[in-house]
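>> Question from a student workshop board

For tomorrow's exercise we were told to take the sequence and the ligand below, predict the bound structure, and bring the output to class. My setup keeps failing. Could a helper post the expected result so I can at least see what it should look like? The ligand is heme C.
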Amino acid sequence: VITALLVSVGCGSSETLKDGIFTPAEWTAVMALSPMPDHPPPNTTNMYADNPQAAALGQKLFYDTRFSGPILNQDSLAHNGVGAPGDVGKVSCQTCHQAPWFVDFRSMPNQMSLGNDWFPRNATTMVNTAYYTGWREWEGVNDTIWTDACAGSEVWTSGNGSRLAAAHLLYDHYRDDYNAIFYPPLDPSLDANAPDAARFPADGKPKPSPDAPDGAWEMMAPADQDIITRIFVNRGKALEAFIRLLVSRNAPFDQYVAGDTTAISTSAKRGLRLFVTQGGCNACHAGPTFTDEKFHNLGVPDTYPAGIMGYDPNLWSFFTNLLDTGHAGGPPYAMNNPLSRDGVYSDDTTTPLLKNLTVTDADMGTYRTPSLRNVAMTPPYEHLGQFAMLEDVVRFDNMGGGTPGMGFPGTKDAKMKPLNLSDGDIADIVAFLETLTGEQVDQQYWSGQPNP
Ligand code: HEC
Ligand code: HEC
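>> Workshop helper replied:
Here is what the output should look like for this input. Compare the format with yours to find the bug.
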């Protein structure tokens, strides 16, 4: 009698609902989000990607400030920059990617990536970044981690260094480490006392545009340029080997999916259900990495509306006028980048990412769907750090994203519709996002001692 009563009252649901909450279809959607694979997928464009010696060298390089050029930003010190204007050798990768979550908690205000100059983007975490298989950065401009490491080392906003200076530094401080991994070994003419040392000037990189005046780099023989660029790329490949070790898995959410019903709170479970149902979040934040690796325009304003995170509109006038093209700028750059995965310095030019690239109006103002792994540890949020808290993001999504006139380029993604979430629903989704914080990366990677 009792059994019959239960079935008739509950319409059978209490027996079939997973953990009393999820229908079979909903649970299938949940299971698609976990677990994270043990290791990042292989990167065949870097034959040293999983070479432990390269990773050990990469760790030293990641924490070595000597590769950076002069600080350009005039108010650097006032904004918790790492040196005064003109200071050389102050910026390393960790300047903007600080352990344990490898994001910027330093730049003032708002962690907006003050290196040699303002880098008007919210620094993406290095933790689990090797799980992205395609485009790099918010807007998808570089196409491998090593490509990114090279670009960031030379661009004035980030490292403002040069590949010639980098080759000399490697020769002077890392010669044995380098030669134990890479072939050919570092060219002996990089020695300052070599008879033909003049082949390799102390400093120089390709000029920024064809109409810029020639520099020391343009005076070099093409074969010597190739020697230097290969060394510079190998440095990037060693950095990638290190970054591939920065893995965080086994979040409370994963433990829950694996069967521990006590691993996350009831609120988080409700949030998880909303994530895969009414919120529609997994349409883009898909799979165990919580990203489709595609580009979408959510209408996040590129200007800083008064009141958001205490921005000073005078200070940020440069950014206020910024109209960021998003992914529309990525493919044209990548196709002309000699350091891309399809270029001569790649170890595998057959991967599909850059084949048959096109750019359409729909790419304007789009950004790569970010992974949501460890997202509670990496505020602020969105490509310019527009939002201070996870709740701000979910409230924004609940409105269906931005509204025209808010100050974003391009056309908003059709998937972005008002969600009719209540305040309680929003709190539940935030509670769920907080269950995505995995184990911290191994402490041995939080710092590194560069070679003297
Ligand atoms: C001035 C601050 C700064 C410094 C220094 C810096 N980065 Fe970054 N990094 C950023 C920012 C900001 C982004 C996001 C850029 C964007 O999306 O436009 C980023 C993105 C990246 C990415 C792309 C990750 C992804 O999500 O695809 C990689 C890889 C990376 N950095 C590696 C490095 C390495 C290696 C170094 C040292 C050689 C370095 N960075 C130095 C600020 C910095
Ligand atoms: C149409 C695809 C799409 C949908 C649907 C979507 N997102 Fe996103 N999400 C993105 C993109 C793209 C960004 C980055 C946007 C930017 O910076 O301009 C983002 C950013 C975020 C961020 C900030 C991450 C960071 O590191 O800064 C969070 C948190 C987030 N989304 C959560 C959610 C939640 C929760 C939902 C469902 C309510 C959702 N998203 C729905 C594509 C999507």
